[in-house]
Amino acid sequence: MDYIPLDSYxxxxxxxxxxxxxxFHLVELKxxxxxxxxxxxxxxxxxxxxxxxGVNDCxxxxxVLLPAxxxxxxxxxxxxxxxxxxxxxxxxxxxxxxxxxxxxxxVYDKRxxxxxxxxxxxxxxxxxxxxxxxxxxxxxxxxxxxxxxxKAKFIHL
Length: 157
Hints:
Distance between the termini: 25 Å
Helix content: 10-25%
Oligomer: single chain
Strand order of the largest sheet: 7-6-5-4-8
Strand content: 35-45%
């Protein structure tokens, strides 16, 4: 799995500051011109892994982020879709792991050719640390390099 710094995406840094002030993190930002309209796709997550994002949260961020982006881009001919990561999110960029600390995730580890799951404890630009609960009540920590991850997604019970 590739690690692409989130701040390398156009306008991510400016938009993350705005979203962060509202109590969220910006996970994804895609801006593309389509038939004369600037299409914006944004995904936000909460700063607390245990709190779910609702429609009202998305609406509140949308009302602040859209005018700011229109000013940054110099256009008002825009369409913006703002969502939460959702229950079935596939983690697309290894840089996203840092935003999901404390969440239960699973990764397909190429070394063991199987899914490995647990609570995401830490992540940097090379690897992540999962804590897997064992049947006897103990916990095992597993460090997994991004090079060994084929896919990653949330675990929802």
